[in-house]
């Protein structure tokens, strides 16, 4: 039996933390190991507790979720953070995703959506739906106007290292397809897809699928 996923809850509203805690406490494979009410506390607890997944409120007084996410990821690139927000697809949540978060979740998400997102992020996937992926691209286009260029960030060499199949997998990830959907589309097993995804992220030096979406847009592989 594997160890439960260790979770840190970060929200300035105690009732929100209580509600999430009750939902997660009912799951045998999930364990809330700490709670923080602001970004500064989140950074401290992330360093001391080393949780597997952090549920991070994006809007908090003082140090907000965007900056807290940026600092936590900078200190520990393997951190997995899911952004919590009341507002669907707003620029604040998008900013946190760009800062290194691995997922996006509304605070009124259903219990099964919450637990599924945590398990997906812990498994190395990203909790970002196709609809949110498309909106991310729209916001990214607004933030960085102009035509994407393959040499924009000096990573064209890494892109050229991808095999044709890996290139296709990257585009599929950027379009918001899950491993199961990619497997069905290319008639592959899910284990084979996971292997391809891992190689794509390794070759491009990307931490997860959220970063793959941004990379793909910057290189003109997908468009909003």
Major β-sheet annotation: 5 strands, parallel
Write down how many β-strands occur, each being a DSSP E stretch of 2 or more residues: 5
What share of the residues does DSSP label as strand, in percent? 5-15%
Secondary-structure element string: EHEHEHEHEHHHHHHH
Shape: globular
Strand order of the largest sheet: 2-1-3-4-5
Instruction: Write down the overall mean pLDDT.
Output: 83
- Rg value: 17 Å
Structural class, by secondary structure, is: alpha/beta
Q: How far is the first residue's CA from the last residue's CA?
A: 43 Å
Number of helices: 11
Give the proportion of residues in helices: 40-55%
Uncertain stretches: 144-151
Structural write-up:
With 224 residues, the protein is an alpha/beta fold. Helices cover 52% and strands 12% of the residues. It has 11 helices and 5 strands. Helix 1 links the parallel strand 1 and strand 2 (30-36). Helix 2 (39-49) runs parallel beside helix 3 and helix 9 (179-186) packs across helix 10. It is globular, with a radius of gyration of 17 Å.
Keywords:
12% strand, single chain, 11 helices, alpha/beta, 5-stranded parallel sheet
Structural topology:
Blueprint: E1 5-10, H1 14-25, E2 30-36, H2 39-49, E3 53-57, H3 65-75, E4 81-85, H4 91-98, E5 103-106, H5 111-122, H6 130-143, H7 156-160, H8 164-174, H9 179-186, H10 190-204, H11 209-218
